[in-house]
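Reopening this ticket.

The earlier resolution said the output was attached, but the attachment link was broken on my side. Pasting everything inline this time so it's all in one place.
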Amino acid sequence: MSLLSNNALTKESSGNALLIGKEARDAKSKNPNVIDSTIGMLFDEDGSFLEFKSVEEVSRDLNAKEKYSYGSTPGDPKYHESLYKWVFREYLDEIRSSMKLACIATPGGSGAICNTFSNYLDENQKVLLPSLMWTNYIQMAREQRLSYETYELFDSNGGFNLQDFEYKMLKLKSEQGRIVVVINDPCQNPTGYSMSYIEWIGVVDVINSLSRDGTPVILLYDMAYIDYDMRGFEASRKNIKLFTNFNENVMVVLAFSGSKTLGLYGLRIGAQIGMTKSEVSINDFKKANDFSARGMWSGTSTLGQSIITKVFEDKPEQFAVELEYARKLLIERAEAFKQEALKVGLKHYPYECGFFVTIPCQNPQNVFDMLKTKGLYVIPLKVGIRLTLSSITKDEVIRAVHILKECIE
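Inline output:
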């Protein structure tokens, strides 16, 4: 007889990228020719972990209190302010003039997602997720005793499927009277797709139309890869500025990832930023999410908050230059992948740039097993194979394309 609760009896992680990553690292330690394309971390062209020097310099100069002391549950106000400046950039004053903002420090972007699922849906309600997604969304929803619905990510032309997005939102509006919808953009995980400005205008129009009658709509904007948009900082922030057009029944929750932007993967530092026109809604955001943070993880890494605050406040120019190097590195790998895939006829889902690209195939688990025998470690998905370009060199990208083509055929 199990001692677990009935709810816990069905809990079991599957397709764990971290476990597959460990297997890949063990294989590579024995054979340097193994391609470890599993974990979403950024490595340089020499195969070394890509460290931002500005981040390392700041972390070395912190005193003991700045590294180890307890902080308040919602996080340091200086941390919040540094994030507002970084995330909203030249639009901050304009956004502040029309929207209410609040921030909760979280353990990575994951903490922001969990908090949002917890506080904007009731038990057994559904969160709306993209059909191609970071599958941890499902596990996080399950942990909050939620279900989920999916909208088709792509239409027949390979663009954002606004029609199905609207249809599924209408469906949930009818079923449960409120909507929590997740969009991961730009450089979506696992496809690397980035929505256009026109597509975002369509999303804003649909959400406003559905919420105008008082229906609460929460847009969970997972912006983990925002600083790797191949179009640059300005384009991604221009999309965010569109959120000022939402009516007062809409709450945007931005999930910021210090893991991805600053390479602080293991520190588990991020933020949940609320953005709405409603004073009542922003106050509710602060109260409920502070309560949940206290109840789930108590407080977020003081070290992580201190590093990010000081980098953004004291070394923004130096960090921006380093980040630009990292972004261009990804762009070069993206172009290498797309050119080689086109050359050999390897099909993939719409991909612009970013850490990941997804290749459709039949029987992904069988393909995954075959790829390992060829020295290529990837992440199998239900619809295909996720290749992580952030962690492999351009030469390995080209090799991986040929191995994938061979094994899928």
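Reporter confirms the inline version is readable. The two ends are 46 Å apart (CA to CA). Residues 148 and 168 are 11 Å apart (CA to CA).
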